[in-house]
Sequence to fold (359 residues):
Amino acid sequence: MSIARPLLVTGSSGLIGSEVCAYFADRGYTVHGVDNNQRAVFFGPDGDTRWNQKRLEATLRGFRHHELDIRDRVGVLQLIDDLRPAAIVHTAAQPSHDRAAAIPFDDFDTNAGGTLNLLEAVRRFCPESPFVHMSTNKVYGDAPNAILLNEQDTRWDYADSAFEHGIPETFPIDQSTHSLFGASKVAADVLVQEYGRYFGMPTCCLRGGCLTGPHHSGVPLHGFLSYLVKCNVEEREYTVLGYKGKQVRDNIHSYDVAAFVHSFIDSPGRGEVYNIGGGKDNSCSILEAFAIVERYTGKAQRYTYVDTPRVGDHICYYSDLRRMKAHYPRWTITKTLQDTIREIVDSWHRRVAGASQPA
Ligand SMILES: NC(=O)c1ccc[n+]([C@@H]2O[C@H](COP(=O)([O-])OP(=O)(O)OC[C@H]3O[C@@H](n4cnc5c(N)ncnc54)[C@H](O)[C@@H]3O)[C@@H](O)[C@H]2O)c1
Fold:
């Protein structure tokens, strides 16, 4: 009889964490989730993730929730010493650009300090266990905005053919504006690389574009597609900030992120970095997202336009996925943008209708 290996997932009640928990619970792991519902502290009641924690506890066999703040160094060391996980997937974070400016200590202590706590605990107690860290495309700061663009009817796109496949991992990460969030995530990203390079640990950073799916607690400051759909379903006004609503994001379903995490854990490199997003095929502008959502809900999107972009926001960003695909040729994106948006619409319909748990 095979014994289920322990997997530790931080941020387990969030979008990516919960998807990773569900994915691995079906694949022979005993999943241990760490979350303290800090998202509700960061964003208020709309950011509350307890519903998702309850969903995991009710549906995943053997799932165990640990109410722990990753800033608690002693607690993190103790938990990893106790569990000696076979792999660690670190998704807990203060995830918002704009929110970070109001809470710089909480942002840095969570994103940089929390990541260091985990890395060091893993180095001490289970250094051979793969460590996957959710980083962000905001580590590139606003430098992608310097790429020559062309303006189309509903979106911006790269005019420079060097970026026809999107932004590669070799893109510079410094000497640009990141927001404090981007800066704390750079610190974490470089630490994760360093534990791979200096200590030889099997670590990787996944620099996410727009990660999305039906289990996001979307709020105005984080979770662009989830929040946009929520506004449509509830007939609320969405505020478009700058760039004529033609700013482009590449969207990847959380399931495809979890599948890539699995690929890495099965065959890990050391100190690796991958850009992960929907790529060009799953990219859309805000105006284009409105049109797709309207198709599924039958409701016109209400919105106002403010001609001031977010500080450090990308005008056009999509990930070059060629490095991931070259290293892990069996991994591919399985969910189209349309599939993903339809799932988010269905989920919000259920949540708004008062169903206790989305699918
Ligand atoms: N969603 C995106 O579009 C996106 C894009 C790029 C990168 N990322 C990164 O991916 C990761 C996951 O993002 P997400 O969208 O799932 O975020 P999320 O906010 O949905 O989930 C994060 C979870 O971490 C928990 N958490 C936060 N601080 C904590 C702490 N101190 N201790 C314990 N738990 C804590 C929160 O309560 C939340 O449940 C983050 O690192 C984020 O920066 C996300």
